[in-house]
# Entry
Amino acid sequence: MAGTAGAAVEAARETAEAGQALYSDPDAAMRREDVSGSMQLGEEQAKLEEYLVSRRPKPPEAPWLEAAGGGNMRVQWVVPAGEAAFREVSVLMRPVGAAHHHASSSEWWRVDSRTKYLMLEALTVCGFHVESPISQPLQIGRPPTPAAPLLEEAEPGAIRARWVLPAAAPPVERVLLFLRRVEEPEWGLVDNLTRTLVRPDFQGQLQACAAADGEVVVTGLDPDGPYEAKVACLNEHGWSEHSPPSASLQLTRPPSSAVAGWSKWFFQV
# Structure
């Protein structure tokens, strides 16, 4: 009996203390309920996010850009097979170096004819706001600066020059090849019609190389001294900047009897 009475007294005391605490801090119970509710809400939110991540489709591959004529470019992309989320695709574009991409309402991108040096890049945004990697850039207007050409000896007294066309819209149509001996101050020009080198002050009609040819063999060269080359590219908007010079190439000297008739001036007149 004494033990039961003692327990009852202790329970009454705890109840009184709890009531006193509630009286002095009436928001305590509410805070306890808020903490419990927040923990439950946080767990549900975490489960929801985990579910969305599991349902989130994989990002598509980067789109690619190509010239479409008339200063236009075409944006193309591939939708991953079996991804129902990719029913709608948005195209975002920006000039290279800009901070933000801007939406494009169609797959065509037109630039004002006064624009000469605009380099654009794109990405696609699919369902669930999944972004692709950024595309390789494409310049519209005049061609971008091409890479340095590659030189190799085709035969004694002849050099084969190869080039890689830069991506441009409109596409590159012609390539002008410059060639000189390394110690010469001025560059000569290669005439594609005769496949020879002409003076920089040449007054006749010079034919540039067809861009699609990818190479040209220049003949009639003096083997004295190494040669280097550079190129410029032409489209309907104009000429690009000159490429960096190529690595130098030393020609093989033929037998002395074959050299006797060559002029020390290495340009063909």
